[in-house]
Amino acid sequence: MRIPLMSIPRFGFGIKGLDEMLSGGLIEGTVSSIIGAYGTGKTNFAQYYIWQGLIQGQSALYITLEERTSRILGYMENKGWDVSQYLDSTFTIVNLDPSDFNLAINSVKNELPTLIKKTGAHRVVIDPVSLFEDLFHDDATRRREMMRFLESLRDLNCTSLLISEADKTNTFASKYNLIEYLSDTVILLKYARGEDVNDVHLAIEVVKMRMSQHSREVKPFEIHQDSVTVYTEATVF
């Protein structure tokens, strides 16, 4: 029997404004991506996504391709979150070295599905998926392998969030202009400048969301030491 869309479980970020834009959160079992240039807070949002799951009793898996475990834990603890109580039980952090092509490809394609099954992870973050995309030397191979990889995530009954660098010349697109087409939901983080070029703000947009209604407005947001605020009542100039 087909489940009504409104009754499908959702995985929120615990960020009121953002969850509101997503009609409650990411849809269970989907693959979503956050795209943004440096300094827009991509990893911040990913860590909120992980933390929200942990405090709700869900298992979480954080795959990092460029940060050490100690730094990930440090960032989260600086927000006032006691993540140590979840380590080795419902929270697992895995470091992958993308410098070794064969090892990295093997780890992501073969070992990651096994790890997700073993940990029973409800929420999975890959930060950044751009480094995995870098491993493929031509567009055709990259598209084929990424399609297979995302389908394997959907088959594992987890709700995944992929962090992607924005293209250097077009900050509205991912580095390879690919992940946004393959993902079920796409969240774009960007800079917004007013008439005064020195007045720089951060803005968020839910570019697409399959199987659900979502806000199509661009909203300003701020990152504080212990919180993120999305101003859904405000407008971006």
From TrEMBL:
Every KaiC domain range: 9-237
A Pfam cross-reference name: ATPase
Alphabetically ordered keywords of this record: ATP-binding, Nucleotide-binding
Tagged with keyword ATP-binding: yes
Entries under InterPro entries matching the protein: Circ_KaiC_arc, KaiC-like_dom, KaiC_dom, P-loop_NTPase
Highest taxon in the source lineage: Archaea
One term of GO molecular function: ATP binding
Protein name as it appears in the record: Circadian clock protein, KaiC
